[in-house]
């Protein structure tokens, strides 16, 4: 957390305004303030000397990475477990868990907040090197049902850990994987190479449906970290242990898959896909 819909919502807010802030493309960074050096994954000297004076040209998302395209470099932000960013007006004080701040020439600043200190920043002229390990985007038009089935069938892994593997598919996390598997009627422990083409197509459709719904609802706000989403009010399985399945009314069960809390309907999601 945050996952693809939350990161996409943040990227959209930085591009267009929203979540209490204004758009940042076209704004020049006058000063960078590194409040906790551990959050910077690239050399500090380049960050301090080359970042000031650069203008934000575009804001993009790749997987769970925020990418701020600058004049000559890019600033990548991975929010990990507890990260968030804010755009605030001049005079607004920084907060307790702010780890970096980027002060624009017009007085605004972009703050990177991360209570647990898992998030990271990269300042690099080659952002593609940082994201090279990522698999395809779920909405990539080249990811056809047949291509997705081929990717699944050549792995011999349980479905949920595979979907959480960012080198297989970029952007999925615990929430949207549970929701997609429930929608597709597939058990998280089912082996990827056991799926028939119709199962793979159903899973791809379900992944895209839950991600689209999450983006439309500005993501899910399930704790104090991520602000402003309401997809949590539409969960079918995630964190609904003991509550009735919205399809068949069987109580949702919680199990652990790959050290991750996982929520399923034992009736709608049999171990043997059908």
Automatic annotation (TrEMBL):
Q: Which GO terms describe its biological process?
A: base-excision repair
Q: Hey, what's the signal peptide range on this chain?
A: none
**Which cofactor does the UniProt annotation name?**
Zn(2+)
Q: Give the Pfam families listed for this entry.
A: Fapy_DNA_glyco, H2TH, zf-FPG_IleRS
Residue ranges the record marks as coiled coil:
none
Q: Which UniProt keywords apply?
A: DNA damage, DNA repair, DNA-binding, Glycosidase, Hydrolase, Lyase, Metal-binding, Multifunctional enzyme, Zinc, Zinc-finger
The subunit structure is: Monomer.
> What's the family?
Belongs to the FPG family.
Q: What is this protein called?
A: DNA-(Apurinic or apyrimidinic site) lyase
